[in-house]
Amino acid sequence: MKSLKKTRRIQVIVVAFVALALSTAIIGFALRDGINYFRSPSEVLAETPPETELFRIGGMVQDGSIVRGAGTQVSFVVTDCFVAVPVTYTGILPDLFEEGQGMVGQGRYINGTFEAVEILAKHDETYMPAEVENMHEQQNFCEPETSATDGATTTG
C-alpha cells in the first residue's frame, strides 16, 4: 500500500512540475512581443540592434532638427548629448512634442535611421519619461547652460 501512495505522490509532483513549466513557456511566448527594451542613442550606435527588433529609444529632441515632410511625415534627431540618431515618423505627433524636450519613440533602427511607429512626449513642464530621467542620472546628461556673458543658451 505504501508503494502505491509513493507512486501517486511522485506522479502528482511530476504533473505539477510539467504544468508549471508549460504555463511558464506559454506566458513567455505571449509576452515576447510585448517586451520593448529602452536604449539611449549611445547604446543604439554602440551595439546596433537587428532591423527586425522593436525597441524604444529616448533622449532629447535636438534643437533645429525637426523637419516636416509631406503629409504627416516628420524627421528629427534625438540625442543624449553624446550621440545623435536621426528619427523618421509618419503620424500625428503629441501636442507637447517640440525641440529641446524629452521624448521616447518606439520603432526599429533601419539603415542608420530610427523608424518610429510611436512617439511619446512629456506631459507638462515638470514631467520627464522615467527612462530619460534615469539616463540623466546615469550618464550625467548635459543640460542647457546660460552663458554669463550674453545670456544665450548653449549645450556642452
UniProtKB/TrEMBL annotation:
Ranges facing Cytoplasmic side: 1-9
Chain residues that bind heme: H123, Y127
SUPFAM superfamilies hit by this protein: Heme chaperone CcmE (SSF82093)
Membrane topology per record: Single-pass type II membrane protein
Record InterPro entries: CcmE (IPR004329), CcmE-like_sf (IPR036127), NA-bd_OB-fold (IPR012340)
Coarse class of the protein's main subcellular location: membrane
Pfam entry (one): CcmE
Location of this chain's protein in the cell: Cell membrane; Membrane
Transmembrane feature ranges: 12-31
Record's keyword annotation contains 4Fe-4S: no
All ranges on the Extracellular side of the membrane: 31-156
Stated role: Heme chaperone required for the biogenesis of c-type cytochromes. Transiently binds heme delivered by CcmC and transfers the heme to apo-cytochromes in a process facilitated by CcmF and CcmH.
Family as reported in the entry's similarity comment: Belongs to the CcmE/CycJ family.
Entry protein name: Cytochrome c-type biogenesis protein CcmE
Originating organism: Octadecabacter dasysiphoniae
